Amino acid sequence: MIAKAANLLAKELTTLRVMSSAGVIRPYPPGVLVSLARTLRDWGLGPAGGFTSVALRFPDRPAIVDELGELTWRQVHERSNAVAHGLRDLGVREGDSVAILCRNHRGFVEATLGAAKLGADLLYLNTAFAAPQLGEVCEREQPAAIIYDEEFAGLVDAAGIDVRQVRAWQESATDLPTLEGLVESGATADLIPPGHHSRSVILTSGTTGTPKGAPRSDASFDAGVALLSRLPLRAGWRTHVAAPLFHTWGWAHMALAMLLGSTLVLRRKFDPEGALRAVTEDRCDSFIVIPVMLQRIMQLPEETLRAYDLSHVKAVAASGSALPGDLGTDWMDHFGDTLYNIYGSTEVAWATIAQPQDLRDAPGTAGRPPHATVVKVYDAHGNELGPGEEGRIFVGNSMLFEGYTGGGSKDTLHGLMATGDVGRFDEAGHLFVEGRDDEMIVSGGENVFPKEVEDCLHRHTAVEDVAAIGVEDEEFGKRLRAFVVLTSPDAADEEELKAHVKSNLARYKVPREIVFIDELPRNATGKILKRELAEQS
């Protein structure tokens, strides 16, 4: 009993320290405190309550900066009220599901808040979907309405989605309702809080099949504390969120804005130099990315990189896939030691965070667990493994998802949930992720993880991008095939790259084949679609 009380006290003290350091805990006038308490009681901790609370605390602070200009938090609150009234007039009801197929702009946030204020659930769709994927997901999830950007009109039609439709980003005339039209014609009065608090359904990456829906109810305060315990974001910062908002990592920073009152700097499409320009011109304090974005920025000419001063940026936070090769240290060598690498999954959220010193001390590490997070590595029999021993990674925290919307869940063991990856801890407590547990191949009796080979090839100066997969082999059972994008067509040949792997890794890890291609297939979150590479084999 005493130990339990001590642990609870320690947790509360850590929460107080983290929230104080982040500038979340601060004095407010009594009237604001009363309104905040009432808002969170009635609306919950999800988007409806969370963003309304920001409008109460910081009504005149810039909320969103996008290609259309700037909106304050008061304006976002009033505009999303109008969207909610408009959606209700279109027939959307409490408990319905509203699909959102938007890029990073004010419409994404306003659609989220408008639907949430009605008590409708939110289904975030991947902007890189093909029509069959979009159709399959919507058939399974059954949204009552879909809000989408004009550029996806043909996709929505091809997917056969026959529900109420609202256009978000719209640049030409249309007979359909638009978000801006709902804002202009709708009432801005506050709504009556619904009995159902909105759920957010975030889709898995779908790299091996149809994406699954991973629902989350009200945002967890503990989730913010955990992230901020190792990622030094602060209240009131200007944050360029380049990571897609529909993805767990981009969505997390939209949610963090509810806590921190951040200004979200958004651009609809990622462009390497355009992102650097946005960060510098908008004087952003933090930069939220997926690793392939850093990769593409680092491929810019040296004179372009030197033209942008990021010395005012205090945190560059990357998540969504592994940092390939020496990308982490290369980035810090150019722009300073402000890079944070976050490892996790849609199902478990963030599991470990590598701070800049971790990336210097242990290049390639996924970092260490944040506050109130347990990460363990188990063997096939459920035994916990020690430093240096490879096994399946399991995570325990307050952010584990509730099970897929279509049924099923991730494996659990001793109260922890599997991430689907294999990894190991080093003696200093750094986690290293070796690869997906379903990607390991056995070649000639030896275990091979493609990621190690990919990282090795990526370190060759002639290699711009790389992916490796296992293919069937009559003699060895499986053999490794690498797909390589070169910096220029004649930068290297197959034998040179094989020799490079052989000089750095064990002989059995050398790919039997290297296939040169112009570009790797990736989804909108930067993950390589290895199923498409396998189909080419």
Give your account of this protein's structure.
- The protein is an alpha/beta fold and 537 residues long.
- It folds into three domains: 44-217, Rossmann fold, CATH 3.40.50.980; 272-436, ANL, N-terminal domain (Rossmann fold); 441-536, 2-Layer Sandwich (GMP Synthetase, Chain A, domain 3).
- The strands form five sheets. The chain has an eight-stranded mixed β-sheet with strand order 2-1-10-9-11-12-13-14, with helices on both faces. Strands 6-5-3-4-7-8 form a six-stranded mixed β-sheet, sandwiched between helices.
- Helix 2 (30-43) runs antiparallel to helix 3 (47-57) and helix 3 runs parallel beside helix 10 (248-260).
- The model has no long low-confidence stretch (mean pLDDT 91).
CATH topology of the largest domain: Rossmann fold
> How far do the termini sit from each other?
60 Å
- The strand order across the widest sheet is 2-1-10-9-11-12-13-14
Largest sheet at a glance? 8 strands, mixed
How many domains, as an integer?
Answer: 3
Q: Given the C-alpha coordinates, what overall shape results?
A: globular
Helix content: 25-40%
